[in-house]
Amino acid sequence: MQKFHKFCLKIFIVFIIFYLQGCSKGCRSGEDNKLKEVGKLIQKSELKEASKILYEIIKNNPKSDKAYEMRIKLYSQLKRDGDLLDDYDKIAEIRGAEQLPLLKEICLGFIRTSFDNDDVDVKIDTVKAVTDLNESFFIPDLQKLIGDEDYDVRDEAASALKKFNVLPSQARLNEMFNSSNEWNRKYAVKVWGEDKNVSSIPEFKKALYDSDITVKIEAIKALGKKGDKSAILELKRLLNADEPEIKLYAAEGLVKLGEVSAYKELFGALDEDDYDIRILAIKILGETGGVDVTKRLRSVLEEDDEIVRKEAIDTIAKLGDKKVIPALLKFTKDDDYDVRISAFLALYKLGEPSVVERLKNGLNNDDFEIRSSAVSVIGEIGSKAITLDELIKIRQLLQDNDPEVRIAAVHSLGLIGSKEDVKEFRKALKDEDDEVKLEAVIALGKIGDGQVIKELRDILRKKIMSPDFKIQTALALGKIIKAAGIH
Fold it and tell me: What is the CATH number of the domain that holds 275?
């Protein structure tokens, strides 16, 4: 009898186990069906009803990682960033690790929402971030921006699409060339002009008579690039145009086609009253080069306008004429910050041996602007130009009293890109100055160290954050995740 009772007890226990397993499967099956329903509701933008169902699922099963994942999709549409990140935390806790593919999806979503910002600068910064991240995920967004009302946004989007090797079809380019919209016409000419497989075509000469100056300029550039000498007479005609920009680009095209007499127009523009025209002439001379170009640019170095001086120094460095080194030395002490940096970089590129020593001395200068410019230049040059002592000094400047110096120090160390500085960047995330924090975020994204993911997620969670800060933080996380092999 006793054996019979034991046997019955065993049968009962087995029955209970199977019963509970069946209930569990039934519950899971029911939950899965509800989640499928939620997915359909989200697709139809019936978000209120989807939210109710998710609330009930999570109430009954607080460990339902799938429900939290589905609610992330819901919060993404509602732009509830903080709640979205809270749910990500719960998923990571339930699964016992960072969920990098999911986090990447969240970061890309954060970046994508910035395309809808009304601020032109935010849109442009978003396009730059997307280009930097090199994610084809954003190609449809970039294509949409080609129709943006702001032409600068269109230009940035077009440049990004080119890097993704996404260009309009020939049929679409023909359509754009014949459009009433001047940007469309300009873009068609630009794409044809930059396409090595396209020879000089009639559309280029036709565009020389366009009513819009930007279309004419792209046509002039295209004819110069293609080496179309049949356009020489047309370009000479444009030397008499009313618009000074057209004259200068026509002169550039003629120089590229072998008409050296056109230098006269470019050199003459260096004496124009309009500093924009002087700057354009300097830039074009940097592209054309030539025997007397550096000699003529030396006279521009004494300009009162700091932007003109800076452009002249940058162009001289590009041309690589070492004879100008003595003339550049005094500009390392120029009153303008940007001019000083350009002078240091130019001298370094030209091989002036005293530059590095001057920079080292600048790190200890009492003037915060000199310390800042010295740090910035060292970052651009890289660690190969300095010893460990200077690197240690730059790290010490992360604690400088002046925020401009701290910003420069973080930026410089970020460019140098040593993982040994991750600890310093993490400290900089807590700096009282927002620009220092932003530079630290950018630096951490460049280095790609996974140990800072949690800290960057916490930064994203903050409600008071500039659009640029949000974009750069999401970009940094995206880079780190990509460096971890998640594509």
Answer: 1.25.10.10
Is position 308 within any domain?
yes
- What residues make up the domain containing 331? 270-346
Boundary of a domain, candidates 346, 373, 398: 346
Q: How far apart are CA 109 and CA 107, in angstroms?
A: 5
Element containing residue 195 per DSSP (H, E)? none
pLDDT tens column, 287-297: 999 888 999 99
Q: Per 3-state DSSP, what percentage of the chain is helix, strand, and coil (rounded to 5)?
A: 75, 0, 25
434, two tokens? 């927002």
Question: Quick one: how far is CA 252 from the chain centroid?
Answer: 30
Backbone φ and ψ of 258, nearest 5°: 95, 5
Inter-residue contact 220 to 249 (CB < 8 Å): yes
Residue type, 181: N
375 and 398 Cβ atoms separated by less than 8 Å: no
In a domain, 484, yes or no: no
Other Cβ atoms closer than 10 A to 382: 12
30 part of a folded domain: yes
Mean pLDDT, rounded, of the chain: 92
Which of 97, 120, 138 is the endpoint of a domain?
A: 97
User: Are 343 and 313 within 8 A, CB to CB?
Assistant: yes
DSSP 377-430: HHHHH-GGGS-HHHHHHHHHGGG-SSHHHHHHHHHHHHHHT-GGGHHHHHHHTT
Distance CA 161, CA 139 (A): 7
Q: Provide mean pLDDT across the span 450-477.
A: 90
* pLDDT confidence band for 23 (50 / 70 / 90): very low
| CA–CA dist 229, 236 (Å, integer) | 11
Query: What is the reported pLDDT for 11?
Result: 61
Q: Decide if 283 contacts 270 (C-beta within 8 A).
A: no
Structural domains counted in the chain: 2
CATH number at residue 51: 1.25.40.10
- Is 467 inside a domain boundary? no
> Which 8-state DSSP code applies to residue 166?
-
d(CA 50, CA 454): 29
| Cα distances (Å, whole numbers) of residue 132 to 138, 165, 172, 477 | 12, 15, 27, 13
Q: Which two tokens stand for residue 333?
A: 């002490």
pLDDT of res. 478: 95
